[in-house]
């Protein structure tokens, strides 16, 4: 071990000690302990989670009416499986949905059986003050149709309701009786659900502990306890895994990290979601000369998107457009019209710049987050653009400040990283709709390009897709949006980046992780000594 590694490990050991992370006994097979990449939990109430890391615990404690198979996304409405609802129907206009509830489901801590009253309460709470009120705003009403049936009516059709609304953190079902008894403030750190684990400890500095819900309606969790230990420091988190203090950790999504971990412990296992984050690059159409289509085309030809994905392997993936090819509106490169394939061609990029009046290229400023996944990607892009004369002065700074600046329209080429389910209109609405246009006062949305305002956008097609009552028509409209975006280039799909967890070989999750959000359940997991 060299001096640098020694100092890193010494600092990490000190950090672990101050965090109260205890050593895991090799025979301790009744607990799964995961190291979370954040400073501490904010809430255990799923209606108010804004920090993705909190969702590791909420995923164990709460359930929705329906959900995908463990370790996957549902890529179409027919792939959702019954959970707290046993069956459901939709009206022909996709505006009225009826759900029959599973009977006999018990809440944690003796709060009794789940009924339609709890479902109505959970949904109305999400509509009133949840963190996903944009989607919930389409819900006109939720009413009980007896103790074990609810009806959800919508303001406009939604053929994807199961994915947009039902399988959401905000619409997990919590106990109305518990909320009324313990009060809203305590509920923030002691919410009561129906999931395979129930909360036993919430510590804003240490993390969250849960135990098996013995009254669970399905197969009970195989391991008795789960602990989500928050370790923000990368080196400390890595040491915690290598030393056996935790069983798994959230990975560092940066080039070379997986290889470096395998060099330290070749037996480590890595679980990766596909696609994970969508890394997109917004081109600000109000910043000259990026209002010129030839300049934007030059940017597209100058970026070797395959090389970007390759540099991030094994976590990185390629997108021909804005969706991975196995998502409903996704395409392979060869399926696109030749002029929209944008195969890497720096000479063509230089020619387009010359045609646009910039034979020698030009200089411009752009901001970037210092977080590893952002900075590593944008540094690659910076080098590729420089090779054709697009000299980007990249200003790298604090991650929170970076997002605040983007929200205030202070960027030229703004990278954004976010996870999306196989419901393409969610990305289009958040990153391309004129309704989500960024504003200088910070009160706008996440469409940093000003697409649909600085030039005609995809608003009409998006509205048609959102109003569709037939799923095939919905997908066809989304494919048209993909083609129009490739023609106009307000937004570039740089890569996907898998959410990744490194785990000790002694832990078997009980199912393969193929796709899905950055959280998965542990109720089927086993652990050997």
Q: Can you describe this structure?
A:
The structure is a single chain. With 529 residues, this protein is of the alpha+beta class. It has helices at residues 3-19, 55-61, 116-129, 133-136, 161-166, 176-182, 184-187, 234-242, 257-264, 293-302, 305-311, 346-355, 372-386, 399-407, 425-431, 459-467, 471-488, and strands at 31-36, 66-67, 81-82, 85-90, 96-101, 139-144, 149-154, 197-203, 207-212, 225-230, 248-250, 269-272, 277-283, 316-317, 362-369, 390-397, 413-419, 491-497, 500-503, 507-508, 526-527. Strand 6 and strand 7 (149-154) form a beta hairpin.
Summary keywords:
globular; 20% strand; 7-stranded mixed sheet; disordered N terminus; alpha+beta; 529 residues; 30% helix; 21 strands
Question: Summarize this, please?
Answer:
With 529 residues, the chain is of the alpha+beta class.
What is the spatial order of strands in the main beta sheet? 8-9-10-1-11-19-12
- From the alpha-carbon coordinates, what is the Rg to the nearest angstrom? 24 Å
Indicate the percent of residues in helices.
25-40%
Poorly predicted regions: 1-10
Question: Residue-averaged pLDDT, rounded?
Answer: 92
**SS content category:** alpha+beta
Count of strand segments: 21
* Spatial separation of the terminal alpha carbons: 28 Å
